Amino acid sequence: MTNGAPTGHEDETAPALPEFPLTRRCPYRPPSGYDELRARGPVTEVRLPGGRTAWAVTGHAEARRLLADPALSSDHHRPNFPLVQPAMAALKDKDIGLLVGALVRTDPPEHTRQRRMLMSSFTVRRCAALGANIQRLVDERLDAMLAQGPPTDLVTSFALPVASGTICELLGVPYADHAFFEEQARRRFLPGQVVNAFTALADYLDLLIRDKERSPGDGLLDDLVIEQVLPGRLERTELVRYAMSLLLAGHDTSANMIALSVLTLLEHPRQLAALRTDPELFPGAVEELLRYLSIIGSLARVATEDIEIGGRHIRAGDGVLVAGGAANHDATQFERPEELDVHRSARNHIAFGYGMHQCIGQNLARVEMDTALRTLFPRVPTLRLAVPADEVPMNQGLFFGIAELKLTW
């Protein structure tokens, strides 16, 4: 196999290509297979499910350069777009739901238009202003958890309600309906359920937005109804897609990061002790946990032009997968990357992506994580795992997470 574009077939005398995506064996460590990929260079060829090939990017510098390169497209309707999750392929075929034509799956100028409509709702100042409401949610969930007593599943008793409540309040989605959309989110991981789950959620959001058209309330979706839908600048179906991607990404990623961060700190008692001693370390610790955990396995793109990078020649039409977990553990960028260090300056991680598609909700996620962690550990000082860490059930998918985290105190 030469350094040229993936061909979809191999020379029988060439070494077998590594399989991608990789599976985590530990909830808080990246897949061990990243070491093999790095040994092949910062940009290397991999084999996807179904036999197609693509380029995997493991180098930090190369990842940032490519994520900022307009010669890479996020439009998954382009030929050879590398869909590594079967659920994504199913949704593409149905042309519904998950990020189809909304935000991360569009290119400029359409992406620029979409992002501009939403940016004002996710500024640092606006997310900080939500801090009091997030603190209230955190306190309420901890009150209920402590009243119920140990043991508890932190995912369902704390992490998921905090994340769901926060994104519902921001969007203007009734939290009373949280059980419904959390169930649809869970069904996405079940064989044969993904299309039905997204269809049900799309139908729910369509009805909700129709209600807002008749009687707008106070939330991001209400603002968009008033400013964009009612004047005819935005179709309701497009707003449904925005709402779906924001609702699911907002509660999925934050809930996963809160639960995984708690597990990780409990498994690193010296780091947790440093945070207990000096709470001013929490903002930096949030960045380090984002780097260390890197729950989004890869960011998919397809090249629209030839690109030379990392000693490789990516041809127009080649699929590219930026492996954030690998890039965030690149030893040329982070000293001792395999170690969790809450004193580390890790702000240049790419856990939220990079470039024009960098996560629009990153400021909100930071506030949620900081508030949840700095409140939980002082209020429950004897918190500990009720099962060994290697027995914690994991969700492998678009967003990595844990299905259940049994704790006691």
Please tell me about this protein's structure:
Belongs to the cytochrome P450 family. Residues 1-25 are annotated as: Disordered. With 409 residues, the chain is α+β, with helices and mostly antiparallel strands. It has a domain at 95-297 and 329-408: Cytochrome P450 (Cytochrome p450, Orthogonal Bundle). It is built from 15 helices and twelve strands. The protein has helices at 34-39, 60-67, 86-94, 110-119, 124-129, 131-148, 154-171, 178-187, 194-214, 220-229, 236-266, 269-277, 282-293, 324-327, 362-379, and strands at residues 43-47, 53-57, 72-73, 152-153, 299-303, 307-309, 312-314, 319-322, 384-385, 394-395, 401-402, 406-408. A five-stranded mixed β-sheet has the order 1-2-8-5-3. Strands 4-12-9 form a three-stranded antiparallel β-sheet. Strand 1 and strand 2 form a beta hairpin. Helix 7 (154-171) runs antiparallel to helix 11 (236-266), helix 9 (194-214) crosses helix 11 (236-266) and helix 13 (282-293) crosses helix 15. The protein is globular and about 60 Å long. Residues 1-13 and 96-100 have low confidence and may be disordered.
